[in-house]
Amino acid sequence: xxxASLLQRLHAIQQPTLLDGGYWRLGHTLFIVTAKGLITVxxxxxxxxxxxxEYSEKHCSLIAGIAAECDTLxxxxxxxxxxKLFLFNKGKPAVxxxxxxxxxxxxxxxxxxxxxxxxIESAFINHYLGAEIEAWDSMDDKSLTMWAGKIEKHGRTER
Length: 159
Hints:
Elements: H1 3-11, E1 17-24, E2 27-33, E3 37-43, E4 49-53, H2 57-68, H3 81-88, E5 97-100, E6 112-114, H4 117-128, E7 134-135, H5 141-158
Antiparallel strand pairs: 1-2, 2-3, 3-7, 4-5, 5-6
């Protein structure tokens, strides 16, 4: 495909979209594609999107009992971070949840938490939309072709 056609397709992106670049070397790489270009989010210290988080009725009872032994969830060292988040947000048994952690060691009230993964992806996108964008116009033809292919593939798997 020629450059002008690729740029036209990329500039036609309707809304910012999250693409998972996977885990590589020291961390997790996530990409946000926009009509203007590409935002790369390299998560080396922590993974900002957690999930699915899901617990059985039995496990919920167990962690609720452990939580009651401490004054606050944040201070409870006997619970895993996901368990604290689940309880803080009044999660329900047998429901899958996802969370967005905006920074390393975020307080429980700083997370976004939802059973709708798309809400968590939107929170992530909104958090990073002001980050540096690599413009489509500045990329070489090989990169444009690669990103157009990834975006097309992502669109087919999301339907």
